[in-house]
Write a structure and sequence with these properties.
With 303 residues, the protein is α+β, with helices and mostly antiparallel strands. It has helices at 2-34, 43-55, 59-77, 80-103, 118-137, 145-155, 161-179, 194-215, 230-240, 271-278, and strands spanning 182-184, 188-190, 220-227, 246-251, 258-267, 284-291. A hairpin with a 3-residue loop joins β1 and β2. α1 (2-34) packs across α4 and α6 packs antiparallel against α7 (161-179). The two termini are 33 Å apart.
Length: 303
């Protein structure tokens, strides 16, 4: 029992350390690739970026003012563990960002100066996507619209979380058109659509990367095999592919012949060899399906 508690506590500490590390990564991301390129990224951090651009108030301070009440709200209305981890992320992100502002880091900042501005949007979107995915996989968030979207999805399960988040981000993108509008001697101001395009690019890249991380990297293929040679095929699966299989008896609806149905999940790089193996058996039919991620604790078959 003591050993289990120790493992659990170490795992919990590891999650908080990982949350703090990705928060540091996001702070560097904003300081190096976003603030000098005049576009608002997704979410309420995008609002904080626009406030810094117009009023000079640091993103770090604005993020604290926005996210602390949201984390308190999520503690009572969503999930306590989720709220605590989100608060750790938000505090770490804000304080690290404020410290990075004092350091300056001008030599390291990517300043497109209006040329090839798509690159900082792509780079920052990629990094943020990794951060978003890592947070969601550990039941935490970066605060802001992620907390709002999760609450809406909790109360209205029929609403897709990512569509809710997209709608909130679309509002930020629309507002950024006017925030980054430039003065014009003739018309008063000139609307520049570059910031909104960069915001959309950032949102697309970060969402794409984040979704792939949330789905997981344990992608595999499931084979369903209907055969009269179950023992031989299981033997090959075990010895050659180092996997196991689930066996069930079945009855053909047309011929009324008895068959064995085998279900086996294998790695992507084994597909060709697996198909070649099945082709050696007569009276064998198979089809495959993609598996996004595998779960559970399984014993590994030794070499």
């Amino acid at each position: 029992m003591k050993m289990e508690k120790t493992k659990f506590s170490l795992k919990g500490i590891g999650v908080y350390i990982a949350t703090m590390l990705v928060a540091v990564l996001l702070a560097f991301n904003y300081q190096l690739f976003i603030v000098e390129n005049n576009f608002a990224p997704a979410g309420l951090n995008g609002v904080a970026t626009m406030i810094q651009y117009k009023l000079g108030i640091s993103i770090g301070f604005v993020a604290l003012i926005i996210n602390i009440p949201l984390c308190i709200f999520s503690y009572f209305c969503i999930d306590k563990k989720f709220a605590k981890r989100s608060l750790v992320f938000c505090l770490t992100y804000s304080f690290v960002f404020l410290y990075l502002q004092k350091l300056g880091l001008n030599a390291l900042q990517y300043n497109s100066q209006g040329k090839n501005a798509i690159f900082p949007a792509l780079i920052s979107g990629l990094i943020s996507g990794y951060v978003y995915g890592a947070c969601f996989r550990t039941n935490s968030s970066t605060g802001g619209t992620h907390i709002i979207a999760r609450y809406i999805s909790l109360k209205k399960p029929e609403f897709n979380f990512f569509w809710v988040n997209f709608a909130l981000n679309a509002i930020v993108a629309f507002v950024s058109i006017f925030v980054y509008a430039k003065p014009d001697a003739t018309n008063g101001f000139s609307i520049d659509y570059t910031p909104v395009c960069l915001c959309i690019t950032y949102c697309f890249v970060s969402s794409y990367i984040g979704n792939n991380i949330i789905r997981g990297t344990k992608v595999a293929t499931k084979f369903t095999i209907i055969t009269k040679h179950p023992d031989e095929i299981i033997e090959e699966i075990t010895t050659k592919f180092k996997h196991s299989a689930t066996s069930m008896q079945a009855l053909g609806s047309y011929s009324h012949d008895e068959r064995t149905v085998l279900i086996c999940v294998i790695n992507k790089h084994q597909i060709v060899d697996f198909k070649n193996m099945l082709s050696n058996y007569d009276n064998t039919f198979s089809f495959s399906e993609n598996v996004n991620e595998t779960y559970g604790n399984f014993k590994h078959i030794k070499q």
